[in-house]
């Protein structure tokens, strides 16, 4: 791979990150935790000023943006506690065993170390939670890796302001120079990703751009891990009994989930499969309110949404249950209201090539399925990977004892094979920041279906395992020492166990 020489400024950025890497890797978990909490505190203190900038650059509401700052701070604090706990290091200890079943076993101990400098391409639709100090950035810093963030072009002033807040906090916390840096420009981001000193990349955005960046990372002379969160349509399946039980509740929840943040969420329910002839379409139109038009993030996104909406509405059999619309102002900004479309399963099958592409905006499609449709079979027929899949079921169906229980279990299994998160009686727009959260899924939801960009497991993406064999105690990483000075979880396989492996199954 050949690429242009770096500018002096970009060379200095990568050089600082490279110099910082070994120093940051030797910081203690307590030191990094204090730094993460310092960033969280500083962001919340600066929230009014940052939100003011974000209002101007993104068009998102003040309530949404203020909540996003809080979410960002909470995740930083969660990661601080996680790295001090140390379970993410997955420390494993196999003491020497002269009576091992396969011959003498040496002392082997395994843990994880930071990868080194990482570049994170920030997102447009979450200017705090998936941007300069969002989830990927928090995970990279928690893992002990120097971070270079490529700012998103839709909110450059906010990116600069957030970077200033974070840089001051990290400096005051005593982190090495070069721990965190911000760059602008697509070309600069690509050049950093190509540089051999960069050890991993992360990205949140479109399938097209994500695939380009993933290919760059994979085609380097020394390929590197690339963690991209790309596209998702997040199918929903709603049973007849659930509709009979609470049609209005489902309708209002669905409408709110589609319209929230003008549908510019990777977890928006793009399709809902419902029984043909059910009362849900009527409940949706009955509960639809006059949602004020919402500005989309930028003119490029608005133009793309307008094209997708036109294509979907032009599909044979598409019935605009709620027509919605989009208008453009003199600055090229698009202002949208929600569009809900109903279509039969047969017409959906015929128009699948047009309909299945993600509509990044406030549009969703109700697919009316005939009685007896094998819903589990619809997953591989229509979808690749998704971030989430949702089931709305009745109270009786939740017991697992109804006549359709086998079909529901088959549908759940099919969903689990193709999504990262299976929800029941809720809506996918609302990704809780918790240790057990999984925000990922098979391609094209992400470029790596075994990883997550939300939750504490996100940290391990930016570390790699190392085993130490017959190492003296004094020279072992503290995480692997017998005295366990860090007080972290250690998985120990005592000598003598190997002769008993498998005996319980005789």
Automatic annotation (TrEMBL):
SUPFAM superfamilies (UniProt xref): ALDH-like
Keyword Transport included in the entry's annotation: no
Domain (Aldehyde dehydrogenase): residue spans on this chain: 5-371
Name of the protein in its database record: Aldehyde dehydrogenase (NADP(+))
Gene3D superfamilies assigned to the protein according to its UniProt record, in alphabetical order: Aldehyde Dehydrogenase, Chain A, domain 1 (3.40.605.10)
Keyword Metal-binding included in the entry's annotation: no
Organism, scientific name: Leucobacter alluvii
Domain of life: Bacteria
Record's keyword terms, sorted: Oxidoreductase
Pfam families to which the protein is assigned, alphabetical: Aldedh (PF00171)
